[in-house]
Amino acid sequence: MALNLPRKVSVLGSTGSIGVSTLDLFEQAGVEVEMVGLTAGRNAARLAEQALRWRPQVAVIEDEKALPELRERLAGSGIRTAAGAQAIVDVAGADAQWVMSAIVGFAGLAPTLAAAKAGAVIALANKESLVCAGPSLLRRAKMAGGAIIPVDSEHSAIFQVLDPEVAGTVSRLILTSSGGPFRNATREEMAAATPERALAHPNFSMGAKISIDSATMMNKGLEVIEAAYLFSMPAERIEVLVHPQQIIHSLVEYADGSTLAQLGPPDMRPPIACAFAWPDRLPWPAPKLDLVSAGPLTFQAPDPERFPALAIAKQALAAGGRAPAAMNAANERAVAAFLDRRIGFLDIPNVVAETLERMGRETAMDFTDGDAVETARETDAAARRVADQVVTGLCAA
Ligand code: NAD
Ligand code: MG
């Protein structure tokens, strides 16, 4: 049976961990794609190498200073080059049928919205865009006749096992978490943690920002918000379960007492394959799950004392309005400050909580309003300023 696969595709954030996994999946599955655009932040060398292999119409680099190098490396190839945030938005909104949204952070929002408006099927890795403007993003995709298929492994798991026909009978969504590198660490060890130690994820290598989010468990906090929007589920019916082996990617509990789970090896290519071929299944030489060698699967409850980020995220979700976007911005600044060795590891959730406190939660963001995205942008900018002040205060103390 011939598969109905997308042909014209773009990969936003192609030089990152998810971007590279996406191109590797295409390679291994031997799919024939017509590449519309490849985009990167500042790594011109890697972007040029990918462009020479995948022959996109255009290769876009966000950092304008890297454009000369990109041009030089692609000279004579016939591949167009461009630079800047707007050029990325333009390629995201071009005519690809399938767009991998794998830019990290709030920077992914505008391109993802452009792809949604263009009616593309969006494979969404960039969870931050849903956290900051989830309802608007989902509405725009729906209105334009496109779709958003989650790539985040937990949400891909839920997407695969949640039958929309009986969504009303779901009692709980249970998101699994590896627990991160500090699952068994003491508070003292966490307080003294260096970026090198925090970046060492137990099961696989990811971009720096999500690795730190995984260590603070803010990643799971962002994912709770992501799940709430994607699956229209209130915060109190979304739970987090620590499962260090990362074999069970999440679970859906139904009212009749049945719980369905999705399993797979800890590898991002299967969820990317799922988002690429859905509702078909892409054949490729996938690493198969070997439950015998995986050994015992274990579970534990997350520790709210050492991982306050989870509760902060749930509160932001419950507060609604601007709170999730402000939380995300504060977290991005706090993670950057930690990576720059300006603040300690345990300061990260404190900066986020203090930023939310200072910003107050009185101004609601009305998601039915067409300006919700503009409000998310203003909130993001304001929260960054406040978070930077909180960081500066900590550094002076
Ligand atoms: P990464 O840091 O490895 O890659 C990020 C990509 O975005 C790179 O191509 C980079 O050049 C580009 N980029 C960075 N800043 C940019 C900017 N300002 N403008 C344009 N492009 C920019 O990150 P990653 O680990 O691949 O994660 C990407 C997204 O996927 C994140 O939102 C992350 O939360 C999500 N995600 C990642 C994983 C994973 O296993 N890595 C799993 C689930 C979800
Ligand atoms: Mg995840």
Automatic annotation (TrEMBL):
Gene Ontology MF annotations: 1-deoxy-D-xylulose-5-phosphate reductoisomerase activity; isomerase activity; manganese ion binding; NADPH binding
Chain positions recorded as 1-deoxy-D-xylulose 5-phosphate binding sites: K127, S153, E154, S178, H201, S214, N219, K220, E223
Catalytic activity, reaction form: 2-C-methyl-D-erythritol 4-phosphate + NADP(+) = 1-deoxy-D-xylulose 5-phosphate + NADPH + H(+)
Protein name stated in the entry: 1-deoxy-D-xylulose 5-phosphate reductoisomerase
InterPro entries in UniProt: DXP_reductoisomerase, DXP_reductoisomerase_C, DXP_reductoisomerase_N, DXPR_C, DXPR_C_sf, NAD(P)-bd_dom_sf
Gene: dxr
Cofactor: Mg(2+); Mn(2+)
Keywords assigned: Isomerase, Isoprene biosynthesis, Magnesium, Manganese, Metal-binding, NADP, Oxidoreductase
Positions of NADPH binding: T15, G16, S17, I18, G41, R42, N43, N126, E128, G207
Origin species: Phenylobacterium kunshanense
Binding site for Mn(2+): D152, E154, E223
Signal peptide: none
Record domain 1-deoxy-D-xylulose 5-phosphate reductoisomerase N-terminal: where: 9-134
Pathway: Isoprenoid biosynthesis; isopentenyl diphosphate biosynthesis via DXP pathway; isopentenyl diphosphate from 1-deoxy-D-xylulose 5-phosphate: step 1/6
Domain 1-deoxy-D-xylulose 5-phosphate reductoisomerase C-terminal residues, every copy: 148-231
Biological role: Catalyzes the NADPH-dependent rearrangement and reduction of 1-deoxy-D-xylulose-5-phosphate (DXP) to 2-C-methyl-D-erythritol 4-phosphate (MEP).
Gene3D superfamilies attached to this UniProt entry: 1.10.1740.10, NAD(P)-binding Rossmann-like Domain
A Pfam family that the UniProt record links to this protein: DXP_redisom_C
Family designation: Belongs to the DXR family.
GO BP: any one term: isopentenyl diphosphate biosynthetic process, methylerythritol 4-phosphate pathway involved in terpenoid biosynthetic process
Assigned EC number: 1.1.1.267
Residue ranges of domain DXP reductoisomerase C-terminal in the record: 263-385
